[in-house]
Amino acid sequence: MIKARITVTLKNGVLDPQGKAIEHALSGLGFDGVGLVRQGKVFDVELSESDKAKAEADLKAMCDKLLANTVIENYSVTLT
Amino acid sequence: MIKARITVTLKNGVLDPQGKAIEHALSGLGFDGVGLVRQGKVFDVELSESDKAKAEADLKAMCDKLLANTVIENYSVTLT
C-alpha cells in the first residue's frame, strides 16, 4: 500500500480572500509581522497500488481530473 | 523574512465526510484501489521575524489560537 500527500495551492496572483481574512484575524489577535497568508488544501490518499511510478501517475491524473482546478491552482504530489 | 507552511489535518477517528465524498468520486472516475482519503488544510504564512525559534513559537501559537481546532485537528509547522 502506498500513502501519498497531495497539496493544492492557489497560483500566484489569484486572489485569496480566505487568506486575507486570516491575515487580519492574526493581526487582531496581536501577532505582529504577519505578511502574506495563503490557504490551500491537502489530501492524504491511500492507494492499494504497489508500483510507485504507476501510483504517482494515478495521483497526478486524480489532481487533473478532480482534486485541483488547474486554471487557478497548482498541486504537488509526495509519496510518504 | 521567514516563510512557513502549516498543515492542519483531522485527528484519527474523526469523521471526514468530505474525504469520503472524494473517495467515492475517485472510484466513480475509474480510479481503482483508492483507499482512505482524508482532507486537510494548508496555510502558507510569511513572517517578518528573523529569529527561527521565535517564529516557530509564534506559528504554534497561531495554530492553537486560530488556525486549528485542537480538539479534532492536528497541526504541523515547517519552516521553508
Automatic annotation (TrEMBL), chains A, B:
Sorted UniProt keywords: ATP-binding, Cytoplasm, Ligase, Nucleotide-binding, Purine biosynthesis
Question: What Gene Ontology molecular function terms does this protein carry?
Answer: phosphoribosylformylglycinamidine synthase activity
- What Enzyme Commission number(s) appear in the record? 6.3.5.3
InterPro entries attached to this UniProt entry: PurS (IPR003850), PurS-like_sf (IPR036604)
Cellular localization per UniProt: Cytoplasm
UniProt KW Cytoplasm keyword? yes
This protein's pathway: Purine metabolism; IMP biosynthesis via de novo pathway; 5-amino-1-(5-phospho-D-ribosyl)imidazole from N(2)-formyl-N(1)-(5-phospho-D-ribosyl)glycinamide: step 1/2
Question: Does the record carry Lyase as a key word?
Answer: no
Which reaction equations make up its catalytic activity? N(2)-formyl-N(1)-(5-phospho-beta-D-ribosyl)glycinamide + L-glutamine + ATP + H2O = 2-formamido-N(1)-(5-O-phospho-beta-D-ribosyl)acetamidine + L-glutamate + ADP + phosphate + H(+)
What family does the Swiss-Prot or TrEMBL record give for this protein? Answer: Belongs to the PurS family.
Q: Which PANTHER family match?
A: PHOSPHORIBOSYLFORMYLGLYCINAMIDINE SYNTHASE SUBUNIT PURS
Q: State how it assembles.
A: Part of the FGAM synthase complex composed of 1 PurL, 1 PurQ and 2 PurS subunits.
Full protein name = Phosphoribosylformylglycinamidine synthase subunit PurS
What species is this protein from?
Mesorhizobium shangrilense
Q: Which gene encodes it?
A: purS
